Structure formats: structure tokens, C-alpha cells
């Protein structure tokens, strides 16, 4: 693994009114790393992820992606976002566009790729997530798992240096979870840098290089999957791991 | 001598010309009104007070006063401010467009707000700027919510446009009254005028269900 830092977060503070959601979180991610963030609900996992690509403004600290400081109110915030893929819990496909158009649109209008090239890339990405036979379907005609795979293809088509995944299987019926996780596993094998917020513990354990356990807006413990799942040191981590493995 | 004289060919042509002017006036003021409404609706959806503030004032002033007063204010106000009288047609156009802009502004705002926040976030996450997001993601989805109430308003506007006869513009209603003044046959003439209004509104109604506005896929 190359020692190239893609993301550096320093003492991030995020508040919603009087509520402090992130309380001085620092995190670094290197190229090719797969980081899984776990923890009880309300611990700030999703908020942390949303801060990285500027979907939330931060009240303190600094976020640097590939040397660029993320500043959501800055005019050029969208230029940094272009390099960060984001997969949402609820897919958020554009319902007025077909699968192919969903994957193609931002390539054409944001990356200014020629129509033909964008189409080729879109077809390749849809093939990569196993949906070559669904390119002309509208999202309403696709299952949740298929929609989420289109969303992954849409993010990949932008050539991201990093992909953020926010509980991407939480809105899926149980039998559709695996087809999505399989795509993510393949991405990890291909060396994609990813930060994954997830409740799928066995998945986190076998896909991630590093696990981060969060609680109450702080990173409580981090380490290799074996460290966290087999030998958690912090009592909060022990209690969490205990509660889910029962 | 008989008070009632027959309605001749020229009378009918006069009424049809009035109908043509009503249609022309309505189309132009709907176009300008839609542009104003689009701008107002976008401004109303902003979280910045510099944008939503003026839009809010405009909408509430127009919606809170009668169209008749607005037409008078434009008719008598423009010469006061500019020193030049504008004609009856220009007055009618400005008055109706401002009137339509306010109502359409609220309809557009409701349309924009109906689009799921996740859609805007997905657009941002893909690196789209505000206008790309609006043009390609928000607006096409908002349109489905906008079309029916907007056409409902257009239909009301066609009927309200008869008010502009007050400031001396000879449109359909006024043409009818002038023919009645000559022929003393109010029932036949008003009946014909009403039928013409009905035909225009029916056409608009049908247009609102046209495939152009129907969209390709249903929203899930």
C-alpha cells in the first residue's frame, strides 16, 4: 500500500444548534485504504461522512482532501466534490432519468466529457455492477439493490479518488443486501479508497483494513478488524461488540 | 325605426378580432409571467433573505390587491414616473404579467420544494453547481408538480383578462360590449363571447394534459 494521504481531518467539530454531533474528530485515510466506521446510532458516523464532501458545514477543525481544503460555502466546493463519490442510504437516483442517463449526466455536464465517451464509460460502469441488461430502465422499475448498484456506477463514472458509503444497505430488503456488498467487495479488491459507514459487521470485518468505532461524536477506538472485533480495549467498544454478537 | 338591428358580418369579425387580441395578450403575458414566476419562485426558495425578501414582498403585494387596481396603477403610474403614457396594450401586458408572475412564483416555489432533499444532495455530491443542479435535477422534477396548477392559473388569467377593457383596450369582452351597443342584442353577443372564452380555456385545459408535460416516467 502506497503511503499517500488522501484525506486528513483535524479536530472536526460539528454542532446542530446546542447539540454537538462531532466533538473534535481527527482522521486520516491513505490511498487504497478501506475504512469502516461502526458505532451505535446517533454516534455521528453519518455526519462525519457528510462533512467530508461538504454536505454539512463544520463549526471547527479542518478537512483536507488531496491537498484541497473543503469549504462548503466556497464557490468551488463542487470541484472538490466531483472527486469524492458518495453513496446514499436511500440511493437518490434521479427518477426522471434512466439508469444509463443517471450514470451519464454528471460526466457530461460536470466533467465535460463528450457524449459518446460518457456513454461508453456509463455502459462499462453499469456492466461492472452487473446491470448491463437494465440500462434503459427508470429507477422506479428497479429493485432497491439494483438502484443502489446504479448509484455506485454513477459515482464510479466520475473517476473518484475516494468513495464514501453511508449505510448503503440499510434501506434494502435482506435478500438484496448481498448483491450490493458483493460490488463493494470487488471495489475493495480493485484498490478503491473507501470510507464505509455500516451496520453490517461481518461485512465490515472482511472488507475493511481498518475499523473505527465511534460513540458520542468521538472516535473511541480504531484498529485492525481483528483488534476491534476480537480484542476491543475500550469498555464502550466491548459493550457494542458484545451487544451485536449476541 | 327598429332599435334592434341585426348582427352583421363586420360585427362578427370585430368580435373575432377582439378574441384574437385576447389570445395574443394572454399568450404574451403568460410567457413573461412565467419568466417572472420562475425567477420569483427560485428566489423564494432561497435561504438568503436578500433573495427571498424581495420575492416575498412582491408576491404578497400582488396577491393582496385586486387586479383592477394594479391595472389602474400601471396605467396612471407609469406616465407619472416616466413622463410617457404607455398604450392600453402595453398597460394590459405589464399588469397581467406582473399579476401572473406573483401567482406562478408561489406555484414554482411549491414545485421546487416538492423535490426530495436527497435529489439535491446527490446532485451536489456529483459536483454539480447550483444552476446545473437546478436545470437538470430540480426543475424537471418540479415541473410535474407545477404544470397542473400553472394551467389552472392560466385559465383563470384568460377570464381575468376581460378586466383590461376598463383601461380602454378592445379585447374580446369589450368588443362584445361595443357590438351590443350598436345592435342591442346582448344575449346573442354575450353568449357568443362566453363560447369563445370557453373554447380558449378548453384548449388550455387540454394542453395541460398533453404528453409534452406528462414526463416519461413516474416518480417513485
Q: State the helicity of chain B in percent bands.
A: over 70%
The secondary-structure class of chain B comes to mainly alpha
CATH architectural type of chain B: Orthogonal Bundle
Give the SSE string of chain B. Answer: HHHHHHHHH
Task: State the domain count of chain A.
Answer: 2
- As for the CATH topology of chain B, it is MetI-like fold
Q: Give the CATH superfamily of chain B.
A: MetI-like
The number of strands of chain B is: 0
From the structure provided, what is the oligomeric state, counting identical versus distinct chains? heterodimer
Give the overall pLDDT of chain B as a whole number.
91
Describe the structure.
- The complex is a heterodimer of chains A (246) and B (220).
- Chain A has 246 residues and is of the alpha/beta class.
- Chain A has 2 domains: 5-83 and 161-245, P-loop containing nucleotide triphosphate hydrolases (Rossmann fold, 3-Layer(aba) Sandwich); 94-159, no CATH class.
- Chain A is built from 9 helices and 10 strands.
- Chain A has helices at residues 45-52, 77-81, 99-109, 115-128, 144-156, 174-189, 201-207, 225-230, 235-245; strands spanning 5-16, 19-30, 34-38, 60-65, 68-69, 84-87, 162-166, 194-197, 210-215, 218-223.
- The model of chain A has no long low-confidence stretch (mean pLDDT 91).
- Helices cover 79% and strands 0% of the residues of chain B.
- The A-B interface holds A 53-55, 78-79, 81-86, 88, 90, 92-96, 105-106, 109-111, 138-141, 154-155, 158 and B 116, 118-119, 121-129, 132, 136-137, 140-141, 215-220.
Amino acid at each position: 500500500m502506497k503511503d499517500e494521504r488522501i484525506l486528513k481531518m483535524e479536530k472536526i467539530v460539528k454542532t446542530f444548534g446546542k447539540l454537538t454531533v462531532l466533538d473534535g474528530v481527527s482522521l486520516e485515510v491513505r490511498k487504497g485504504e478501506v475504512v469502516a466506521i461502526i458505532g451505535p446510532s446517533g454516534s455521528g458516523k453519518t455526519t462525519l461522512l457528510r462533512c467530508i464532501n461538504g454536505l454539512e458545514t463544520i463549526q471547527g477543525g479542518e478537512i483536507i482532501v488531496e491537498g484541497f481544503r473543503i469549504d462548503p460555502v466556497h464557490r468551488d466546493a463542487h470541484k472538490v466534490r466531483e472527486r469524492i463519490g458518495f453513496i446514499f442510504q436511500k440511493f437518490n437516483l434521479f427518477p426522471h432519468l434512466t439508469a444509463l442517463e443517471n450514470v451519464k449526466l454528471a460526466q457530461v455536464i460536470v466533467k465535460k466529457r463528450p457524449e459518446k465517451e460518457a456513454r461508453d464509460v456509463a455502459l462499462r460502469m453499469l456492466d461492472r455492477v452487473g446491470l448491463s441488461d437494465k440500462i434503459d430502465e427508470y429507477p422506479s422499475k428497479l429493485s432497491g439493490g439494483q438502484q443502489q448498484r446504479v448509484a455506485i456506477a454513477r459515482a464510479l463514472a466520475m473517476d473518484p479518488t475516494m468513495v464514501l458509503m453511508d449505510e448503503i444497505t440499510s434501506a434494502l430488503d435482506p435478500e438484496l443486501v448481498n448483491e450490493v456488498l458483493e460490488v463493494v467487495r470487488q471495489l475493495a479488491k480493485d484498490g478503491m479508497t473507501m470510507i464505509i459507514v455500516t451496520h453490517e459487521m461481518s461485512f465490515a470485518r472482511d472488507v475493511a483494513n481498518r475499523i473505527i468505532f465511534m460513540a458520542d461524536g468521538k472516535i473511541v477506538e480504531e484498529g485492525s478488524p481483528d483488534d476491534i472485533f476480537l480484542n476491543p480495549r475500550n469498555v464502550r467498544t466491548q459493550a457494542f461488540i458484545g451487544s451485536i454478537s449476541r | 325605426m327598429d332599435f334592434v338591428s341585426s348582427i352583421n358580418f363586420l360585427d362578427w369579425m370585430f368580435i373575432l378580432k377582439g378574441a384574437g387580441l385576447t389570445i395574443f395578450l394572454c399568450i404574451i403575458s403568460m410567457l413573461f409571467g412565467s419568466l417572472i414566476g420562475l425567477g420569483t419562485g427560485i428566489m423564494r426558495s432561497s435561504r438568503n433573505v436578500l433573495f427571498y425578501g424581495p420575492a416575498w414582498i412582491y408576491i404578497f403585494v400582488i396577491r393582496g390587491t385586486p387586479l383592477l387596481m394594479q391595472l389602474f396603477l400601471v396605467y396612471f403610474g407609469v406616465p407619472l414616473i416616466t413622463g410617457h403614457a404607455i398604450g392600453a396594450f402595453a398597460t394590459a401586458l405589464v399588469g397581467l404579467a406582473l399579476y401572473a408572475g406573483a401567482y406562478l412564483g408561489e406555484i414554482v416555489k411549491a414545485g421546487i420544494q416538492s423535490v426530495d432533499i436527497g435529489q439535491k444532495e446527490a446532485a451536489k455530491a456529483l459536483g454539480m453547481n447550483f444552476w446545473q443542479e437546478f436545470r437538470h435535477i430540480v426543475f424537471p422534477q418540479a415541473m410535474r408538480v407545477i404544470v397542473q396548477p400553472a394551467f389552472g392559473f392560466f385559465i383563470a388569467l384568460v377570464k381575468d383578462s376581460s378586466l383590461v377593457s376598463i383601461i380602454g383596450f378592445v379585447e374580446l369582452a369589450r368588443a362584445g360590449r361595443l357590438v351590443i351597443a350598436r345592435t342591442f342584442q346582448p344575449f346573442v353577443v354575450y353568449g357568443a363571447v362566453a363560447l369563445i372564452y370557453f373554447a380558449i380555456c378548453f384548449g388550455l385545459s387540454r394542453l395541460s394534459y398533453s404528453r409534452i408535460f406528462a414526463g416519461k416516467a413516474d416518480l417513485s
